[in-house]
């Protein structure tokens, strides 16, 4: 009985070794994607080149217009907030007076929120101009 157990164990061990050898020999080394550009060493800042359409600026300009209403003759704080609720611009504004200004905003802000008194409106900034009307 001991001899039969040893033969069965040796047979299973042989099969396991064959399977492991087959698994190890069938692994293929994957080639680097041909679309990956080679890494170039930069020796000076002047040698760095970027595509001509690359946007170096991390800020953009936004024309902001506030259109007052004659019947809103009261003063309140006017705030322009970024999409992360940080204050981009604020001033004391009379609700009946209109004004316009140019703001420099981070290019990551795709929306701004304008708050005046109890009025709160969100605007998309992709066209470079925002007009706040109090109606």
Order of helices and strands: HEEEEEEE
Structural class: alpha+beta
The CATH class assignment of the domain at 59-133 is Mainly Beta
Largest sheet: 4 strands, antiparallel
What is shown here, in short?
With 135 residues, the chain is of the alpha+beta class.
Describe the structure.
Strand 5 and strand 6 (119-124) form a beta hairpin. The strands form two sheets. The chain has a four-stranded antiparallel sheet, with no helix packed on it. A three-stranded mixed sheet has the order 4-1-7, with no helix packed on it. With 135 residues, the protein is of the alpha+beta class. Helices cover 18% and strands 36% of the residues.
Which short descriptors sum up this protein?
135 residues, alpha+beta, Immunoglobulin-like, 4-stranded antiparallel beta sheet, 3-stranded mixed beta sheet, 18% helix
């Amino acid at each position: 009985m001991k001899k039969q157990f040893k033969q069965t164990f040796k047979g299973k061990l042989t099969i396991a070794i064959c399977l492991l050898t087959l698994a190890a020999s069938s692994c293929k080394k994957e080639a680097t994607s041909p679309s990956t550009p080679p890494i170039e060493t930069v020796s000076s800042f002047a040698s760095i080149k970027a595509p001509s359409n690359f946007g170096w600026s991390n800020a953009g300009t936004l024309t902001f217009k506030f259109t007052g209403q004659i019947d809103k003759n009261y003063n309140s704080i006017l705030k322009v907030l970024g999409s992360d609720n940080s204050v981009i611009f604020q001033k004391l504004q009379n609700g009946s007076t209109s004004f316009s200004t140019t703001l420099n905003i981070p290019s990551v802000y795709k929306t701004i929120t304008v708050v005046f008194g109890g009025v709160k409106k969100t605007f998309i900034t992709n066209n470079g101009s925002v007009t706040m009307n109090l109606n």
